[in-house]
Amino acid sequence: TGDTAVVDTPEVAPIEEALALKGWKLTHILNTHHHWDHTGGNEELKKRHGCKIVGPKNERERIPGIDVAVGENDVIEVGSFAATVFDTPGHTSGHVVYHFESERKVFVGDTLFAMGCGRLFEGDAPTMWNSVRKIMAMPGDTEVFCAHEYTQANAKFALSVEPDNDELVSRVAEVNAAREAGVPTVPTTVAKELATNPFCRPHSAGLRATIGMSADADDAAVFAETRRRKDNF
Ligand code: ZN
N or C of the chain: less Cβ packing under 10 Å? Predict the structure, then answer.
């Protein structure tokens, strides 16, 4: 259809390079949250391309150049593709993710990372756990596009809290080899995160044992303790 979207705008130059390489014209910006490293290119790109800026309703005042404010269950169309919006507060108060269900892709900003999750700047742990669960409820083969390559650092923490998780151990070896070769580790998948990301595994007996949480503690409390330990790791 000629429509082209970018999810978040950390920098203008690499986005322009990618557009030029394909000969595409930018028609949409989909913002996940207000942080500067996600919206800093909004105004310049809008000036150059006249693109429409879509962003979270609950951060409307903090998204430069916003045209369309969206929240839970809204649907945004880009060409022939449709994304359902989920509210995922925690990292910021109005953070959203964009789920292209038919394409099995979700753009999660700073809510979830490979083997990690976003820091809790504007929400508490139960709120963030509720947000993470929305992503984990998507089909296992859904590709998860997180916004930062934090995988290797996250892997060190994950191993420290779940050293006996065999899938985690082998994933960390794969990640280290990929990074050594200069290969990105994003996207990941819902299935991989369910198997290896401690923030998606509060039910894990091994995790609970390592961080001193009892078998009858609720998942949100285990998630909170995991996040607290990562903040101090
Ligand atoms: Zn952020």
Answer: N
